Amino acid sequence: MEELSTGSFNDRAIEKIVEKGSGDIALLSCLSLAMGILAFIVFIMCLLDSTRGANKYGESPKYVNE
To answer: What does each C-alpha distance from 7 to 2, 4, 10, 13, 15 come to in angstroms?
Structure first.
């Protein structure tokens, strides 16, 4: 009969969790990575400068020469 020690029980429990949820963990990891990349891109876009010249709302106050 196999000896039940806390180490072997924990190892088997961890193996079962990994076997059952490895696809879920990979999916969540990929989604988290994609959301992080998307958030970084949106942050960079917020820092970009506007275009010079007029638009339908008028001249950009940033580039008006006084």
So the answer is: 13, 8, 5, 10, 12
